[in-house]
UniProtKB/TrEMBL annotation:
Signal peptide: none annotated. Residues 158-219 form the ANTAR domain. SMART domains: ANTAR, GAF. This is GAF domain-containing protein. Pfam families: ANTAR, GAF_2. The keyword Transferase applies. Keywords: Kinase, Transcription, Transcription regulation, Transferase.
């Protein structure tokens, strides 16, 4: 599924990541570029501030957020494994993998079939992991793994460069705001989680404002912008 990127493509990605105006946008761009580089629809980025603990920093949709959260809840999963073993994980059929007896069945029940998890690091310090997800078994191959590892190096540098603790904390807090706003939309407008998240992302793009700002508006006023 890899998109056949060459060195010039990676150079452009690296420049784009380094030119991001703030940590929040850096994390969003990591996810956007990852989906393009590996040609997948769903991806999540988790950060690790303490050994064995994960925080969801950026996702393509609410489904990914749930998959990532399950790893933290169960204390197991491909992202944690990739960080602990300092090795990339490729799993073709999630439901039969014996390494994660709690997470794997729960993730399979949500429709996950295939995953690539790549450790993000700076020197000896583990920053987190990039997770690429698919709902079809065998969706990724060794070429995808190779591209994901190259991409992860660029992403790691960008995150480490922009990632003072306060900046990354601000970005993660933004994710929490988005979750609150998503819940409000689900309750008030009868939307499911994916649809609520899609509405927030559309408002962000259509109005050229940060997802955090859209979420704050929903939380503060309980209202959506015109045209939503």
């Amino acid at each position: 599924m890899s998109g056949g990127l060459d060195s010039a493509d990676f150079a452009r990605i690296a420049a784009d990541l380094h030119e991001a105006p703030d940590p929040e946008r850096t994390l969003e761009l990591v996810i956007e570029h990852a989906c393009h580089a590996i040609t997948c629809d769903r991806a999540g980025l988790v950060l690790s501030h303490k050994p064995g603990q994960l925080e969801s920093a950026a996702t393509t949709d609410a489904w990914v957020n749930k998959i990532d959260q399950l790893q933290g809840e169960h204390g197991e999963g491909p992202a944690l494994w990739a960080m602990q073993h300092q090795a990339t994980v490729l799993v073709d059929v999630i439901g039969v993998d014996p390494r994660w007896p709690q997470w794997a069945p729960a993730a399979a029940d949500l429709g996950l079939r295939c995953v690539v998890s790549v450790r993000l690091f700076s020197g000896a310090r583990t920053l987190g992991a990039l997770n690429l997800y698919a709902t079809q078994s065998g969706a990724f191959d060794e070429d995808d793994v190779a591209v994901a590892e190259i991409f992860a190096r660029h992403a790691s540098i960008a995150i480490a460069t922009t990632g003072e603790e306060a900046g990354l904390r601000y970005a993660i807090d933004a994710r929490h705001l988005v979750g609150l706003a998503q819940g409000m939309l689900m309750e008030r407008h009868g939307l499911d989680a994916d649809r609520a998240f899609a509405v927030l992302r559309r408002l962000s793009r259509d109005n050229n404002i940060k997802l955090r700002a859209v979420a704050s508006q929903v939380i503060t006023t309980g209202l959506l912008s015109k045209g939503s």
